[in-house]
Amino acid sequence: MTEVLRRYGPVLTGLILAAVAVWLALLVVLPQLLMVDFSFRPSLPPSKLGGPEDVYTLKNYATLWTNQIHLAIFLKTIWASALVTAVTLVVCYPVAFYLAQVAPRRRLPTLILMLVVPFWINELLRTFAWYIILAYNGPLNVLLVKLGIFTEPQRLLGGDAGVIVGMVYVYILFMVFPITNAMESLDRNQIEAARDLGSGWLRIHRRIVIPHAKPGIAVGCIMTFMLAAGSYAVPALLGGPQSRWFTEVIYNWFFEGGNWNQGAAYAFILLVLCIGFILLMMRLFRVGLTDIAK
Amino acid sequence: MTAATFRRWMTGAYLVVFFGYLFLPLAIMAAATFNTSRFPTVTPWMGFTLNWFTALWADQRMWQALGTSLLIGAGVIAVAVPLGLAAALLLDRLHSRARTFLYAVMVSPLLTPGVIVGISTLVFWRQWFGVTGGLFLTIVAQSSFIAAYAMLLFLARLQRFDSTLEEAALDLGATHGQVFRRITLPYLTPAILSASFLAFLQSFENYNTTLFVRGLDTTLTIYIASKVRTGLTPAVNALSLILIALTILGAVVHEVLRRREARRQAAPAE
To answer: What is the domain-level CATH number for residue A218?
Structure first.
């Protein structure tokens, strides 16, 4: 702290501290705490606030347990997000390895740019692109019928499959970049040495590349899972009433059910799920918080 | 064919398929703009038209939503970039457990689902200040996590900063304000531009957070989503095509500037 003061002087230090305090207190920490507090209170009309009924309760959390439909949606959101994460990891791993270790240096900037461009395109537009592809009269149905896989067009929109396919597409780039970054620092000589000593490519990946890329893989999985579990746009566009996502249930508590306390409880459950996934990844890949938050 | 050439061939094929997978859906969406069909599709192809651009141009609600998005984007730049800058300046001078802790709190909004950022902001501001959803809350909610992106950009640039420049200026009698204005800020200018650009892009495309805090205001991204669900015509594709073209242009310009800056950094080292 003394170094901050010495470097920036009292006026600037004061401004810096004030800005950081406003950001972290008003915009990050207090809203989260209040949301949690709110979730443990009953939904009451304004006249009863602060009255004898305004006490902490677990009622809002019990709702998820007793409402079978919501519970099923919650569990589906978990496994579907895990599936999205696993698929993107498998698809991205070879690409990341190519970019980090194999690609010729001069071709690299162009390849990276080709990844950055779709990454920057609006998530909603990337989802919308799949809406057109999956439409009943859309190109995918035409192709599958032509190939003889379907005898007639199928409904591809409005189900879980469409949502999962869309999510893989929309969130795939959040997996590529962290893994590529992690693999880049691996010395190519290590791979050469292992190969000279007779290791096959499978063993090279299992013993050298994957252990080195662990922090990147963990970050990629955490980001992808968090985005998938917290996605509203993709299920809203590609799903239907039969394939509701947990975020859609939360939204309905707020803007259709009119029970914000209940919605806050569900939101906190979603947050706990994401934190749980982060802890799981840290345990699984044996990486610390500092490796992840780089 | 040897094993090595086979492997190279497989890698090449995989990359072609991967990049095809990335770009083909966007190409199909773009192509549907030019189809006369009332529902956006490329199958069947019913003839080339530019009418959907005209229809888009005449759409008053689209222009209104665009205006809202621009306003919110400007607000987010004004809030998130200074906050991110202040945070990076502070972190850059801390070397302790406090730094690790602060850093973790600062990046936590990036690991929080967007809907939760929106919900917590909505609940907090109504309970404490009686503020309901609208332009102001949208700017606040988006800034809470976009400031973290800005912070990371500033921190990366500060790590390469030669702080002896500041030392020297202070030793020669410059005030702290002068040092900041004449040395620190000019050095950070490229990062400020970068952060502003990214902050605007993030704000413009945000859907999950905005959905909860927008009140009765409609941003362009929200508008597109509502059009897809009710009243979808290829005018939405025309809008998407324009937005994608602008994004590509922005990405390329950003990349060119970044490379020029990187070359300038590398060159006069001697």
So the answer is: 1.10.3720.10
Report if residue B65 sits inside a domain. Answer: yes
Tell whether B128 is within 8 A of chain A (Cβ). Answer: yes
Domain span including residue B156: 58-219
Cβ-contact A122, B246 below 8 angstroms: no
pLDDT in tens, chain B (270 residues): 677 788 888 888 999 999 999 999 999 988 888 988 888 888 778 888 888 888 888 888 899 999 999 999 999 999 999 999 999 999 988 887 888 889 989 999 998 999 999 999 999 999 899 899 899 999 999 999 999 999 999 999 998 888 888 888 888 988 888 888 888 899 999 899 989 999 999 999 999 999 999 999 999 999 999 988 887 888 888 999 999 999 889 888 888 887 887 787 776 544
Q: Please give the angle made by the CA atoms of A160, A164 and A168, to the nearest 5 degrees.
A: 175
Interface contact flag, A271 B116, Cβ < 8 Å: yes
Q: For residue A210, tell me if it sits in a domain.
A: yes
Q: Which of A20, A261, A270 to mutate to test the interface with B (most CBs of B within 10 A)?
A: A20
For residue A46, give the chain B residue with the closest CA: B127
Q: Does the pTM of the predicted model rise above 0.80?
A: yes
| B140 with A113: Cβ contact below 8 A | no
ipTM of the complex in this document: 0.89
How much of chain A is helix, strand and coil, in % rounded to 5? Answer: 80, 0, 20
Residue B192 falls within a domain, yes or no? yes
Rounded Cα distance, B225 and A99, in Å: 34
How far is Cα B129 from Cα B136, in angstroms, rounded to an integer?
A: 12
Looking at the domain assignment, is residue A24 inside a domain?
Answer: no
CATH number, domain with residue B151 = 1.10.3720.10
Which of B:210-239 have CB within 8 Å of A?
211-212, 221, 224-225, 228-229, 236-237
